[in-house]
Amino acid sequence: MKPSLIQLCHLLPETQAALHERYDVTRLELSDDPAAVAGLDAGSIRGVVTGGHLGITNAFADALPALEIVAINGVGFDKVDLPAAKARGVRVSNTPDVLTDDVADLTVGLAIALLRGIVSGDAHVRAGQWPAGERPLATKLSGKRVGIYGLGRIGSAIARRFQSFGCSIAYSGRRPHDVDFQFQESIVALAGDSDILVVAASASPDTHNIVDRAVLEALGPGGVLVNIARGSLVDETALIEALRSGAIAGAALDVFADEPRVPDAFFTLPNTVLTPHIGSATKETRKAMGDLVLANLDAHFAGQPMPTALV
Ligand code: 8YV
Questions:
Q1: Can you give the three-state secondary structure of the chain, one letter per residue?
Q2: CATH fold group of domain 4-97+283-301
Q3: For the chain, where do the domains classified as CATH 3.40.50.720 start and end?
Q4: Is the pTM of this model over 0.90?
Q5: Which atom of ligand 1 has the smallest separation from the CA of 77?
Q6: Fewer Cβ atoms within 10 A, N terminus or C terminus of the chain?
Q7: How far is the CA of 41 from the centre of ligand 1 (A)?
Q8: pLDDT score of 32 more than 90
């Protein structure tokens, strides 16, 4: 008999097909209401497949007494209570590495789009405004000082890309790494020495709203913020205020505190570039992520070690 799974996130059709071949899959929306699983034989559900941005709540997991594995289709595990999973003997896997390039590529793309006015330039041409006048001059990227908060796998890939633009790299985070980049003890100090502040750390209670008013003031009127990590790392109220007042020059954001809801205030701020959490959203990467989700599930149900286990 195929093991029964609940699928909470969207998957590519080929991943979906492979999942259905091997497992008995029920597609559901994540909910804290135990009624969400009421129509199912909850006691038969042995696995949950979920997105990094979705995770699983303890209430949902608790409604599944036979749960053995939560396979995250993403690198972030901030929406899964790992200690609670461990205490219950539920295993958790994620999909690191395979999405690193895409997230790092997007970071550089966002920085260039913001500094060079690519999005507003595109709108200008499409609106037929070019004959009426030139766009204001933009800001150069090459050679700028880039500060990276969170020099993990993704932060390091971002650093390598900006290095190839002749940018200097500094970083901050939990601890210094064995790298040639300058380590700053605090994110305020990092922001104070950066033209471009990139948020690449994972979300946790320690990093909640870590980019606050003091950090934005340190970044200053010439500085820009790029966030490709999680919206919860940035105090959005302070950011909107800083963008309005000119305390910083601009922000490029792929992630928001309450996705997919984005504060209306961002829509009217011309010094922003906003994307809908597309860091890993390419066909190639989503295929690789799906393959890794399947590999983790298959290993678990075969009694083998999972390739990318968190717990
Ligand atoms: C995706 C992500 O949005 O990897 C993560 O943690 O947030 C993104 O890659 C998501 O996980 C896709 O399901």
A1: CCCEEEECCCCCHHHHHHHHHHCEEEECCCCCCHHHHCCCCHHHEEEEEEECCCCCCHHHHHCCCCCCEEEEECCCCCCCCHHHHHHHCCEEECCCCCCHHHHHHHHHHHHHHHHHCHHHHHHHHHCCCHHHCCCCCCCCCCCCEEEEECCCHHHHHHHHHHHCCCCEEEEECCCCCCCCCEECCCHHHHHHCCCEEEECCCCCHHHCCCECHHHHHHHCCCCEEEECCCHHHECHHHHHHHHHHCCCCEEEECCCCECCECCHHHHHCCCEEECCCCCCCCHHHHHHHHHHHHHHHHHHHCCCCCCCECC
A2: Rossmann fold (3.40.50)
A3: 4-97+283-301, 100-274
A4: yes
A5: 6
A6: N
A7: 29
A8: no
